[in-house]
């Protein structure tokens, strides 16, 4: 195969893209042909069938998807970001989240666009071996606005979001972790847990295989899932206990130290049904009344129940920046500005940039801008360190005719030619190149005179 991208005339190229997009408009057709593929994989297969993977824009689109997984943005949940997908420049978002077994990841995507388009949302387990490709564990339908996934293992997960070729628009993405089980004592929350998973027991001879939730004696204890009561018993350690089988998730829920048991073995129960009452029976005698709650996975034993029932009290952070800058240029306003790998002052340092460096705003989270740097990488800068380019930093009169370039590169394409004596407002500086504004408002680059 020719290693160079195929080049078509503008008319033929537009026609190919139009035919391709029209053919990909039927979700049912793709599902019928590519039953074992995710919507993203089916779309890639269609690109290759149409040989669009041999075009420059097709290769850029595929590369953007890979880059999103290779250099994802590490974020803390809950997370919210708004931004813009340009139709003429393939772009994909990649996020890395640390999650625990038993949590439910909920991803919501809002799109505003003039044209209907497919947007692909895929979730991967990052794994522990950098040489191994991430394992896809969930995908949303290409027209869906929500993706949910119950986490099966404690590990980082990667989320990729990418629109189809030649489609763009504004996006708002929120990512949250929610509990998969109802809290076993109504009206209580994880704030009422006084003893957690792994705490020492019997002078360190064993570890605590659950969580202890304190509540007054006689407080109702409820079913956290729909299931079947598999066992109602009394033991020296657990006192009055109830085992609830959750076959859907392959686990048993364990309720111990009950004062009373109000169900029988074999009984079907629904979420919220009362199973018993809080007490301090078994080896909990002498302590305050509380419920010991545990989860035992089929074939794996005990697992930490905290992520299964913990509901974060942290609100979804609001976007606090000027949204008018999204999709436009800004410049560094301080003498030197740190650019971070994530929208947090604690995030890793991506680079440091001098005053007046131009940045293209691609998104915003909290009070940070997501920006495209001069090297085309994306990172985050606190909004207080940038300013609009509306006001020029200088006005220069050209001593000789100079080309107006479309990029800050010696081999960039020439947009226009600026005559000698022409006064140009300079709005930002990138090394030996200056970003200038023409009288009609267009921006371009001029290589500074030596």
TrEMBL record:
The lineage of its organism: Bacteria, Pseudomonadati, Bacteroidota, Cytophagia, Cytophagales. Coiled coil: none annotated. InterPro entries: Cell_wall_metabolism_enzyme, Dup_hybrid_motif, M23ase_b-sheet_dom, SH3-like_bac-type. It comes from Pontibacter amylolyticus. This is SH3b domain-containing protein. Residues 327-389 form the SH3b domain.
């Amino acid at each position: 195969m020719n290693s160079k991208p195929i080049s078509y005339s503008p008319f033929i190229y537009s026609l190919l893209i139009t035919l391709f997009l029209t053919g990909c408009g039927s979700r049912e057709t793709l599902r019928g042909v590519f039953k074992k593929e995710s919507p993203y994989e089916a779309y890639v297969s269609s690109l290759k069938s149409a040989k669009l993977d041999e075009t420059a824009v097709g290769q850029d689109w595929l590369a953007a998807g890979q880059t999103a997984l290779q250099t994802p943005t590490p974020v803390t949940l809950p997370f919210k970001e708004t931004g813009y997908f340009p139709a003429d420049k393939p772009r994909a978002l990649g996020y890395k989240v640390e999650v625990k077994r038993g949590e439910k990841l909920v991803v919501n995507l809002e799109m505003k666009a003039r044209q209907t388009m497919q947007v692909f949302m895929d979730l991967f387990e990052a794994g522990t071996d950098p040489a191994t490709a991430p394992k896809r564990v969930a995908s949303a339908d290409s027209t869906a606005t929500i993706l949910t996934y119950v986490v099966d293992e404690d590990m980082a997960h990667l989320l990729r979001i990418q629109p189809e070729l030649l489609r763009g628009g504004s996006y708002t993405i929120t990512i949250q972790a929610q509990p998969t089980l109802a809290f076993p004592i109504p009206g209580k929350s994880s704030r009422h847990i006084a003893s957690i998973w792994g705490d020492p027991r019997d002078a360190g001879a064993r570890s605590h295989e659950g969580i202890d939730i304190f509540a007054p004696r006689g407080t109702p204890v409820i079913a956290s899932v729909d299931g079947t009561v598999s066992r109602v018993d009394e033991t020296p350690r657990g006192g009055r206990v109830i085992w609830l089988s959750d076959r859907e998730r392959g686990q048993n829920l364990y309720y111990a130290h009950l004062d009373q048991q109000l169900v029988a073995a074999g009984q079907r129960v629904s979420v919220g049904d009362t199973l018993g009452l809080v007490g301090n029976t078994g080896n909990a005698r002498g302590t305050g009344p509380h419920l010991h709650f545990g989860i035992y996975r089929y074939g794996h034993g005990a697992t930490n129940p905290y992520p299964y029932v913990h509901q974060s009290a942290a609100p979804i952070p609001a976007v606090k920046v000027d949204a008018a800058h999204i999709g436009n240029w800004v410049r560094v306003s301080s003498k030197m500005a740190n650019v971070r790998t994530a929208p947090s002052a604690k995030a890793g340092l991506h680079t440091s940039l001098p005053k007046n460096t131009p940045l293209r705003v691609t998104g915003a989270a909290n009070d940070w801008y997501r920006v495209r740097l001069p090297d085309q990488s994306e990172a985050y800068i606190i909004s207080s360190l940038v300013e609009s380019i509306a006001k020029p930093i200088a006005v220069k009169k050209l001593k000789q005719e100079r080309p107006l370039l479309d990029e800050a590169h010696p081999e960039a394409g020439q947009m226009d030619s600026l005559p000698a004596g022409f006064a140009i407002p300079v709005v930002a500086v990138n090394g030996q190149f200056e970003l200038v504004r023409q009288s009609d408002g267009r921006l371009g680059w001029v290589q500074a005179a030596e």
